[in-house]
Amino acid sequence: MYTYTKKQGRIEVICGCMFSGKSEELINRLRKAKIAKQKIQVFNSSLDKRYACNAIASHNKTKLESEHVNTASEILKLVKPSTTVVAVDEGNFFDKTLVDVCETLAQKGKRVIVSGVDLDYTGKPFEAMALLMAKAEFVTKNLAVCTKCGSPASRTQRIAKAKSRILVGAQGVYEARCRKCFKPGK
């Protein structure tokens, strides 16, 4: 399913709620690409400084070096011609421009892998992630474990008091919840 050919680009999306292993899955795919001697470049939003300023990181502290960008359009300027795999972590932090960037890279024959939260704390889709899922050749939806009942969790419950749509955080700010235990916008 994830073999690479130099003849055709593609888009892969890894989505799900917080604490579902999205970044870990992304890092695993990139490690395999490195073993296959593919040239990779990794990007993350400059908003995400939770674990490292020059790396993507999973909640269990697995890290991989990355470049931070303020906008998705910066990625196009930074991707080197020799790069075969372009990865973007926290795709939900970018606007819809990310979709055009990924499409452009795939058209150039790049394997593009984007991970990110698909639904915000109110249960509404992040536009860039929803559009990418529709355009991607491969979509992986990860589930977490509901912190209330132990069922499979597909939602992110914000437990910190804040009104902005994007609030960078981890444990103590968000919890994984199943459909039944999720309280939109609370």
Explain this structure.
- The protein is an alpha/beta fold and about 190 residues long.
- Helix content is about 20%, strand content about 25%.
- It has four helices and twelve strands; from the N terminus they run βαββββαβαβαβββββ.
- The chain has helices at about 20-35, 75-80, 95-105, 125-135, and strands at about 10-15, 40-45, 55, 65, 65-70, 85-90, 110-115, 140, 145, 150-155, 155-160, 175.
- Helix 3 (about 95-105) runs parallel beside helix 4 (about 125-135).
- It starts with 9 loop residues before the first strand and ends in a 9-residue tail after the last strand.
- It is found in: Cytoplasm.
Q: Notable features of this structure?
A:
single chain, 186 residues, alpha/beta, Rossmann fold, 6-stranded parallel β-sheet, two-stranded antiparallel ribbon, 4 helices, 27% strand, globular
